[in-house]
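Q: Structure tokens for this one, please.
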Amino acid sequence: MGVPIMDELWNGLSSKAEFETLTREEEGFYKKWGKALVLLKNNPFYSSLKSHEIPVLSQKYGKKIFESYLENNTPGATRMFWVYSPARSEITILALEPHPGPMGD
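A: Here is the predicted structure, written as tokens:
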């Protein structure tokens, strides 16, 4: 799935979902992330994901790093960062981060 912290986050949310103990905020996030993961698995460049390479990160880390949207047109919309690894047929989730707002925010 991803780096250990991403695995822990997903597994924790999945467990809470199974026992129906997610908060309202967690449930919304879990659904968005789950939908994005299904789309990513089936087609990493599905149009609503708006997946694209982040050249500055790719250059810094020596492998192509991509960003995909979990949501859009939302303040602090969450973005998912990922790489093809260890093989081209596998995707590793590196991080989830809020999208920065306009300069000065």
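A few notes: The chain has three helices and four strands. The radius of gyration is 14 Å.
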